[in-house]
Amino acid sequence: MNEARAIDVDEQARIVLGLLKEYAEKLSSLNTDILEARTDPTRGLPLRTERAAWLLDQGELLKPPLSRIISRGSALLEHMNLDTVVEDELALRMREIEIHLHHTLRLTHELKQVFEQARNAEQIAKLRLAAGLNAMKGGPLRPE
């Protein structure tokens, strides 16, 4: 490993902690938005397809990078000798982000089903394709 790039393990853990904290808050907000979009009885109108596509994209596209961050946190917890306070905080933040991510994925799946039942799935897929995403699959378009 290049010594100039070597970072103390506690510092690595603090960087991961910062990302976990930031994205736990973002996922919590996203989950609230999805719940409100699905259950707001005062609107009486179906959720706009543009908003649904936006919410689905956020929910699905955050999974890969957050999974890598969670994996890094797990490796730090399992293989490194961290300061006990850093270790405890990292363990708690890891559980917090896993809970938020689990619910984000569940809610985006349910939102997708709502639109499929309402026959709006095609409209959402078109919006996602126009944004360069792989329709209802949630990933970037792959060149063929």
Task: Map the helices and strands.
Elements: H1 9-39, H2 49-61, H3 63-79, H4 84-117, H5 121-130
Structure description:
- With 144 residues, the chain is mostly helical.
- The protein has one domain.
- It has five helices and no strands.
- Helix 1 packs parallel to helix 4 and helix 2 runs antiparallel to helix 4.
- The longest helix is centred in the C-terminal third of the chain and has 34 residues.
- It is elongated, with a radius of gyration of 19 Å.
- The two termini are 37 Å apart.
- The C terminus is likely disordered.
Quick recap of the structure?
With 144 residues, the chain is mostly helical.
- Structural class, by secondary structure, is mainly alpha
Q: Round the Cα radius of gyration to an integer and report it.
A: 19 Å
Q: With helices defined by DSSP (H or I, 4 residues minimum), what is the helix count?
A: 5
Strand content: under 5%
State the domain count.
1
Gap from first CA to last CA:
37 Å
Number of E-type strands: 0
Described by the principal axes of the CA atoms, the overall outline is elongated
Query: How much helix is in the residues?
Result: over 70%
Q: Describe the sheet with the most strands.
A: none
The chain-level mean pLDDT equals 79
Order of helices and strands: HHHHH
Runs in which pLDDT lies below 50 for 5 or more consecutive residues are 136-144
Keywords:
disordered C terminus, mainly alpha, elongated, 5 helices
